[in-house]
Every structure is written in C-alpha cells, then in structure tokens.
Amino acid sequence: MKAYLGLDIGSISTKGVIINKENEVLASEYIWTQGNPISAVKSLVKILKEKMQSYPKNEYNVVAVGTTGSARKLAGVITDAVMVKNEITAHAIGTISLYPDVRTIFEIGGQDSKIILVDNGIVVDYAMNTLCAAGTGSFLSSQAVRLGVKVEDFGEIALTSKKETPIAARCTVFAESDLVHKAQIGHKKEDIIAGLCKAVVLNYVNNVCKGKRIMPPIVFQGGVSKNAGVIKAFEQVTGFPVIVDKNSHLTGALGAAILARKSRLERPFDFNISEFDFTTKGLECGKCANKCEIICIYKENQ
User: Fold this and answer.
1) Rounded-to-10 torsion of CA 95, 96, 99, 105
2) Are 144 and 151 in contact (CB under 8 A)?
3) Kind of pairing, strands 61-68 and 2-9?
4) Which of 25, 134, 153, 299 is the most buried (most CB within 10 A)?
5) Which residues contact 172 (CB under 8 A, 6 or more apart)?
6) Is 192 strand, coil or helix?
C-alpha cells in the first residue's frame, strides 16, 4: 500500500510523519535539529525506517515526500520531495485534517510563532512574529536555565501557582530584567514561572495577533503547546477553551505529508538516504550585480 512522508525541519526541532492514504499516522518522530538540518533529516529517516519495520514487509511503500519548515528547500532536495510548502500552508492543512471546524490556529515554536485564521476550511489571514523572541519557546528555554528548572517541567510547576507574578512582556530584555528583580524581592519560583507563561501569551496576543479577530474553535500547536501553563494563560487571556492535540508538535509534518499525497505525484522514497553523505558548497552567481548566493548540494561527492 502507498504511504507518504512529511518532514518539518525547523531551527530547533525536526519532525517527521508517515501516513497512509486515509491520513492515518503510521510512524512519527521528533528530534532536535542541532544546527545541522541535513544530519537531522538523515537521523529522522533512520528512526522512521526502524519504526516502519513493525509492519509486515512491503506492506507500505513511501511513494512521495513533502517538506516544510525553515529548511524545507534543503530537505526537499536531499529527499527528492514532490511538494515543498511554507509553514502556514502545511500547518493549516494538517490542522484542518484533524479539526475541520477550526477557526483560529495558534502556533509557537522554538524561534518563531504564527497565527492562522480559517473560515470554512480556507486560510483567510495569517501573521508571524517579528524579531522579538519573547513570544517563542526559546524565551522559555533560556529562562528555565536561569531558574535552574527543566523547561519540560515549566507547565506543571506553573499550575501550582496561586497567583502568577506579573512579568514585563514587551521583549526578552525587559522580561529577563523583570524576572531577576522579582526573584530578588522574594517572589516564589512557581509564581515567577506562571508569570513567564503569561508573559509569552501576552506578547503573542499583543504582537502576533494584533488586529486579528480570534474566534473559537482555537487549536494550539508547536512545541510550546505541551506547556500546560501556557495553555491555561491562553484560555485566561482569550476567554475561550484551547484545543491541544496529542500530536500538536507534528502538525506541520502531517500537513506536508497530506500535501504530498494530494499532489498525486510519485517519486519512490529511498530510506537509505540516511546512509548517504551530503555536502554543500556555496558560490556567487556573477551574471548580474546582485551576486546572489547559490548553494550546491552534492550526494556521495558526486
């Protein structure tokens, strides 16, 4: 039977999903990119290959690949993808496949965040964060280090707070200095953590969502959607319940796989790319004054 692979290669994490023709997930994985998207894709493919071995031999064959994320073009080349799409489209398609009535999609990743507005299954508007990182996962990660707490534990600790500490949400610099000040005057750690979760939400709503009409159902996705403290803050600020799918961190990859299936193009995928060596070389195009950078990708030094 035919299967489809979707890859979402971000600055912090790389996600992969293999689906069948009914969009059912056959295998999935989430790993850190660690600044090397080629290595991350190879590692991810190797893991997915091992997971697919749980099915009878040759029951499923991956016939098409779709890629999304900040390194989607690079990943598209090395996997011979039939579909390379931006994150807005991939996240919208993935979310609509799970929640057809969705009206608002919140997405917060490690380095960026976005809002997608949907009406009758069609994207009608969207926005992404600017240079400020205060409304992203990297902000929470850096503050976790400062507080000596694992970022994975942030959500549960935040829920133990009786009254969150107000933290300046305008930018990372103000938030960090405010955090230090509040800690020095005796605020409890759980209250500060709850305040940080609230600060992320306020920054997101006041910047990314500025001028947008937030309507339920709301679906929250991205790595930060696993933080129960941020979910609670979103519900407090918006006044609406927030849906978080168990695979919320994989929605972009799911959307990429669905787009590959819908393209009806087929290029059989070779899982052995995990064993190949890929190298990149940059050069300048000299055909005009712009001198655009061209990246050449070589497989097995060919």
Assistant:
1) 50
2) yes
3) parallel
4) 134
5) 132, 133, 134, 139, 142
6) helix
DSSP 8-state class, residue 19: E
What are the tokens at 298?
């070589």
Alpha carbons 11 and 91: distance in angstroms, whole number:
16
CA distance 215 to 236: 14
CA-based radius of gyration for the chain: 21
Q: By the 8 A CB rule, do 18 and 4 touch?
A: yes
**For position 286, what pLDDT does the model report?**
81
How many other CB atoms are found less than 10 A from the CB of residue 72?
Answer: 25
Decide if 218 contacts 238 (C-beta within 8 A).
yes
For the segment 109-165, what is each residue's pLDDT rounded down to a tens digit? Answer: 777 889 999 999 999 999 988 655 555 667 788 788 888 888 888 889 999 999 999
Dist CA 124 CA 63 (whole Å): 31
pTM of the full structure: 0.87
Name the β-bridge partners of 293. Answer: 284
Task: Say if residues 114 and 220 touch (Cβ distance below 8 Å).
Answer: no
**What 3-state class would DSSP assign to 16?**
strand
Please give the helix or strand (H or E) that residue 202 lies within, else none. helix 189-203
Single-letter residue type at 295: I
Contact 276, 105 (CB under 8 A): no
* CA angle 98–103–105, rounded 5-degree value: 70
